[in-house]
Design a protein that fits this description.
The complex is a heterodimer of chains A (about 180) and B (about 525). With about 180 residues, chain A is mainly alpha-helical. Chain A contains six helices and no strands. In chain A, helix 1 runs antiparallel to helix 3 and helix 1 packs antiparallel against helix 5. The longest helix of chain A has about 40 residues. Chain B has about 525 residues and is mainly beta. Chain B has three domains: about 180 residues, Cupredoxins -  blue copper proteins (Immunoglobulin-like), CATH 2.60.40.420; about 140 residues, Immunoglobulin-like; about 140 residues, Immunoglobulin-like, CATH 2.60.40. In chain B, the strands form six sheets. In chain B, strands 13-12-11-15-20-17-18 form a seven-stranded mixed beta sheet, with no helix packed on it. Chain B has a six-stranded mixed beta sheet with strand order 1-14-22-21-16-19, with no helix packed on it. In chain B, strands 2, 3, 4, 6, 8 and 33 form a six-stranded mixed beta sheet that branches. In chain B, a hairpin with a 7-residue loop joins strand 3 and strand 4. The chains are: A mainly alpha (about 180), B mainly beta (about 525). Chains A and B meet through helix 1, helix 2, helix 4, helix 5 and helix 6 of A and helix 1 of B.
């Protein structure tokens, strides 16, 4: 056996251990981040339920999904599970972004000046201010997305990164044109 | 786990877009639009002015008829800028009424405001409340009794109460703060024979001081920010719509009717000379005796009549009114300054130039005393689940109940003791009870079980009580003479809008329905 081969063989167990550690660490980190975001969403259910039952329900579903996802990604960190996590978490972040910039397209029946039962619903801005809790949740969701990308097989990973880049550039383009922010 | 440079770039671009864009918007909305301090006038450089007087359009018997139009106008508040405001007859603040006890007034309010608020975008419906008046329910400015742009309503005021300083302002449901911030407020002074008989300053020496704070954006337009429903604070102090004005005074006594018309800010007045302010009147009129105070804590919507004697100063001397801010206000560079008085001349008249030892000893509200078995109630002012509540209820609860839900149903002419509780150290609440005058019995500070007497400036009939941080205040009042539904709410108008307001029903049932007894009508209006 050549020296090179011996060297290669000597390195093999270390590389394998590192790859195993990396492959295990990523789902654990994803699970933690997903659980954090899920817990935050569940914590704010009561105030959103008071605002509108649709908001409250959305937060319950999102929180439960994120907690469930934390378990799922630990058990089966497969490309399909990863892709599901990327799409859903990115969607949640984009919805949050919308609520903090242009406002959501749907909202509760707003202020009513009810008078003889025949008055107009009062519209008004439904753009919410950014708070520390939602910053943490959105940050955790982005971490989930990025870590899940590393679990994808190379061709799918490259395609996903391209899509994410298009989304990111798109956001900045919308900001520059004033459509966002 | 390894990532490529391309992936790092992608994550950076996406993270930046997703996180920084909304953050930038929030920060911008909060601060960056504010006008530069250098564009604001220096304190005490703008001349003082009083609002115009409201004049009746006609009188019939013992009734005087007025007509006001709520409309948008441009005002020069910051020199060099035209600021869009909403005013009664376009005036910022609104015209001052001077009415006589025993003469009723009918004020036709026509809403000719624009279709939408210039920056907040809502439809500006209005409901006018004459604060301090025992009006019938349908004329009290019930929050949901709203007049939309293009409509009008006649408000009837009985004017039978003791002489006092009232004020009229908007009370439209959920938009009271922003409507008042835009300028929908003015003073209403009721006079009676007792007041006229006293040697206290009157006429041009009886001066309205409508104090408010506001903020401007970099275009000189009003900038309303309620800080996540906690309060709207300004960096500019206005007196009668003028920033930190300077008033020329004679070497004699003046009577100032100070109204805190701010949306949220509370004040503590002090003269920089150290001279006491002589309090001769509170919300419900003249006190029994004058009360000198070195500093005067003043909550939203309270009115204090104070006498300042400028005879102590030489011609050429300046005295300034300062604000030593109570806690839990947001303060800026010049919010510790209010206005200046320049002593410029000897008195041109020495009539009505004293403060007697006895003013109004016969006030009915101040004669009330608790008795055994008297009904007592608790009103707990609490923030829960992101809303401001009274005993866990909000105005939305009242609306949802078809306006039947009430925090209390005192009998007509019943006398009760109410304890207002603020068990939080994070904020104070200026609590207003419609319809009645009350007497403040005592106050428990820091929930230590020890009750102390009201402050010297509170020893008169009140309709707003300053419930400070961790305070419980007991009040006694007689519920009458009107029957029906009346509002109780925090007069930090941002708290009121979100949603610290309820109602009490005098008589439990009956009384005019505030929504149907005299509803607004679409234009055109008939002649007065």
């Amino acid at each position: 056996m050549s020296t090179t081969s011996r060297t290669h063989l000597a390195l093999l167990p270390t590389v394998t251990v590192e790859r195993v550690r990396s492959r295990t660490a990523v789902p654990v980190c994803v699970a933690l981040a997903s659980a954090l975001a899920g817990l935050i969403h569940l914590a704010v259910v009561p105030e959103h339920l008071e605002e509108w039952w649709v908001y409250g329900t959305f937060f319950v579903v999102t929180g439960v999904f994120q907690l469930g996802y934390a378990v799922a990604v630990l058990r089966r960190p497969t490309p399909l599970v990863a892709l599901t996590g990327i799409i859903t978490n990115l969607g949640i972040v984009l919805l949050w972004l919308l609520s903090r910039t242009t406002g959501l397209p749907v909202g509760p029946p707003a202020d009513r000046a009810s008078h003889e039962g025949a008055h107009l619903a009062e519209g008004g801005s439904n753009i919410e201010a950014v708070g520390p809790l939602d910053l943490v949740a959105s940050g955790a969701e982005l971490v989930v997305v990025y870590l899940l990308v590393t679990l994808l097989p190379p061709p799918l990973r490259k395609l996903t990164v391209n899509v994410l880049l298009v989304v990111g550039v798109g956001l900045w383009a919308l900001r520059m044109t004033g459509a966002l922010g | 786990m390894s990532v490529t440079r391309r992936e790092m770039l992608t994550f950076g671009v996406l993270s930046g877009g997703a996180m920084l864009i909304p953050l930038e918007r929030s920060v911008q909305a909060a601060t960056q639009n504010r006008i530069a301090e250098s564009a604001l006038p220096q304190p005490f450089t703008v001349p003082f002015a009083v609002p115009p007087s409201a004049m009746p359009v006609t009188s019939v018997g013992t009734t005087d008829y007025y007509a006001l139009t709520m409309r948008q106008a441009n005002a020069t508040i910051i020199p060099g800028y035209q600021t869009a405001v909403w005013g009664y007859d376009g005036s910022f603040p609104g015209p001052t009424f001077d009415v006589q006890q025993g003469r009723e007034t009918v004020v036709r309010q026509t809403n000719q405001l624009p279709a939408a608020h210039p920056t907040l975008g809502y439809t500006p419906y209005t409901s006018v409340h004459l604060h301090g008046s025992a009006s019938l329910p349908e004329y009290d400015g019930y929050a949901n009794d709203v007049t939309y742009p293009g409509s009008w309503k006649d408000y009837h005021y009985p004017n039978f109460q003791d002489a006092r300083t009232l004020w009229y302002h908007d009370h439209g449901v959920h938009h009271t703060a922003s409507n008042v911030f835009m300028g929908l407020a003015g003073m209403y002074r009721m006079h009676d024979a007792l007041e006229r008989s006293l040697p206290i300053p009157q006429g041009r020496y009886d001066v309205p001081l409508i104090v408010s704070d506001t903020m401007f954006d970099d275009q000189g337009q009003l900038l309303f920010n309620d800080n996540d429903h906690s309060g709207a604070f300004g960096d500019v102090i206005l007196v009668n719509g003028r920033p930190w004005p300077v008033m020329r005074v004679e070497r004699r006594k003046y009577r100032f009717r100070i109204l805190n018309a701010s949306v949220t800010r509370s004040y503590r007045w002090q003269l920089d000379s150290g001279q006491p302010l002589i309090v001769i009147g509170t919300d419900g009129g003249l006190t029994a005796a004058p009360q000198p105070v070195k500093s005067l804590l003043h909550g939203n919507a309270e009115r204090y009549e104070v006498v300042i004697d400028f005879a102590k100063y030489k011609i050429g001397q300046r005295v300034t009114l300062r604000n030593v801010s109570p806690k839990n206000n947001v303060n800026y560079t010049n919010t510790d300054k209010v206005m200046a008085f320049d002593v410029v001349a000897q008195p041109s008249s020495t009539a009505k130039n004293s403060v007697p030892a006895v003013l109004n000893p016969g006030c009915a509200a101040m004669a009330l005393t608790p008795t055994d078995g008297m009904t007592t109630r608790t009103m707990a002012l609490v923030r829960e689940h992101g809303r401001w509540t009274i005993n866990g209820q909000t105005w939305d609860d009242v609306v949802a109940s078809a306006y039947t839900k009430a925090l209390a149903s005192p009998p007509l002419n019943g006398v009760e003791v109410w304890e207002i509780q603020n068990d939080s150290g994070g904020w104070h609440h200026p609590l207003h009870i419609h319809l009645v005058d009350f007497r403040i019995l005592d106050r428990e500070l820091d929930r230590n079980g020890v009750r102390v007497a009201p402050r010297p400036n509170e020893l008169g009939p009140k309709d707003v009580v300053y419930v400070g941080e961790n305070e419980r205040v007991r009040l006694i009042m007689c519920f009458g003479p009107q029957q029906g539904r009346y509002m109780i709410h925090c007069h930090n108008l941002v708290h009121e809008d979100h949603d610290m307001m309820g109602q009490f029903w005098v008589g439990g049932t009956g009384g005019d329905d505030p929504l149907t007894a005299a509803p607004p009508q679409p234009l055109p209006a008939p002649g007065l």
